[in-house]
Write a structure and sequence with these properties.
Helix content is 34%, strand content 26%. It has 146 residues and is an alpha+beta fold. The longest helix has 18 residues, at 6-23.
Amino acid sequence: MAQPPPDLVKQVRKFIFDSFDATGTAPVLEHVMRRFGLDRAQAFEALVALEEAHHIALVKGTQRILMAFPFSSVTTPFRVTAQGRTYYANCAWDSIAIHVALDKEERIDSFCHHCAFLDNGLLGKSLFLSTRNETKKRIGGTGIKT
């Protein structure tokens, strides 16, 4: 596989992150092809270069973007809401990183991975964190400022 020009790889990376910012999802290979006037092989080479540099991860055996750190292309337990748009993070740390990447106030909703935050044996209570100039954590309706 030929190595794509570094400037193209950089532009494709920005395009992927801009797509996450604008839509909450990753672009598909065909979007990359259309945006940069590339054929399928050239666009895929750019994605492979980004994966090798650890900027994105592809779904194994496909040409689809699984994640562009800190964003996830699939639903995860780490839902981030910022300015009315929903994003998914790959882990708890990535949900905070989305706040840094977007520079927007956000709300993070998640569940305890050990017990799903069981409350009297019932599922459904979520943990959430709201970011702004100060950090506010709320667990089951109890506000804790840090």
